[in-house]
Amino acid sequence: MHVESGPAPVRSRPGPADPRPRWYRLSWALPWLLFQFFPVADLVTTDRPPAVRLAAGAGLVVFTAVYLDVFRRAFGGGGGGSGDRGPVLGRLAVVAGLGLVLAATMGPPWAGLLIYVSAAAAAALPQRWVWPAVLAAAAVCAAVVTLGGDGGPLILPVMCLLTAFALRGTRHLVSVNAELVEARDELARSAVAEERLRFARDLHDLLGHSLSLIALKSELAGRLAERDPARARAEMADVEAAARRALAEVREAVSGYRQVGLALALAEARAALSAAGVGLWAPSAVPDLPGPVDAVLGWVVREATTNTLRHSGARTLTVGLSRSGEDLVLTVTDDGRGPGGPPGAGLTGLAERLRGFGGRLEHGPAPGGGFRLAARLPAADRVGAR
Fold first, then answer.
1. pLDDT digit string, tens, across residues 270-328
2. CDD domains from the entry (predicted)?
3. Residue 363: enclosing H or E segment and its boundaries?
4. Which 3-state string (H, E, C) describes 178-233?
């Protein structure tokens, strides 16, 4: 979002109409109407021809109405679009012209109208024009008070400057608040998009593994149906169990409570690989790990198992867990040909998970042939404290 340096913000794209009531937008201008006590009192108490009184009163009414409209537009009227700049400047010219004429012709009691001119200039003009206009209004106010010859209120020129400072600060706060509101909305949209991406990644990891296992066991059961019905029934029982487990995991993912640990992932991998005739070498016991670390390492094992079943043609999968300096390293190596080609969505999702904990994912050909996947995380005790 871009906001012009002037008082009336100009957004990079049109926004909705300002929902605030008109009285709220005018509230910035209403306190300054107290200074009209002096010209009104002078209009009532000073003996002047009726025509002069009528003209001055009419000019004061028009001055006040246009002044309030300047503030209504400058502080959000019309949706804050750039199309309001022309009408605001035109009305500001009317305010300035009437203020100068009334102050110069009616004398020092009317010099306070130049305070309104300063306030309107500070609220509506771009930054580069504000202070020349304010200084000019203060100079005219000082001249009217001084040339009046009756020792008028010399505080009025100072009030022109102070009022401009106050309105510039108010205008800045309104613009910053508009930026903060838009930034908050943008952050909310980004959070929603990030959550959608996370949920899609979780579903890919969950269903990719489970459906691969179901497809493999179903194929095996089909081959065994005639020559070994008992074994086929056992495989189909595993298919049913895997389907139910996948359904439960998807429900937990939707509820936001699903977590796949390393030990569970190794047990699932052993069952899936055994059905495919692939041997698994893995630690017999998994050390206690912080919940987030345990979950992310479980995802690494699941993804590696899925890739082995789908792509590698391996006969053996080896899982190792060790420390390297201050890092905790989980390696998964097979003796097949590997997935080949660029990393898929699964490996990309794993890399994103690990980066969230300050870790990284390494993958590529294994030294003795096959494919190697390594997940490096900061030491478990430090990760758990994150």
1. 888 887 788 889 888 888 888 788 888 888 898 888 888 876 678 889 999 988 777 88
2. HATPase_UhpB-NarQ-NarX-like
3. strand 360-365
4. HHHHHHHHHHHHHHHHHHHHHHHHHHHHHHHHHHHHHHHHHHHHHHHCCCCHHHHH
Contact at 8 Å (CB) between 306 and 276? no
Place of tokens 């390494």: 362
In this structure, the number of other CB atoms found within 10 A of the CB of residue 312 comes to: 20
On whether both 203 and 149 belong to a single domain, the answer is no
- Where helices occur in 256-330 by DSSP H, the ranges are 262-275, 291-307
Task: Tell me: do 79 and 110 sit in the same domain.
Answer: yes
DSSP 16: P
SS (H, E, C) 17-79: CCCCCHHHHHCCCHHHHHHHHHHHHHHHHCCCCHHHHHHHHHHHHHHHHHHHHHHHHHCCHHH
Question: What global pTM score does this model have?
Answer: 0.42
As a whole number of angstroms, the distance between CA 70 and CA 87 comes to 9
Q: Same domain for 175 and 216?
A: no
Domain end call among 165, 188, 211: 188
Q: How many of the other CB atoms lie within 10 Å of CB of 319? A: 23
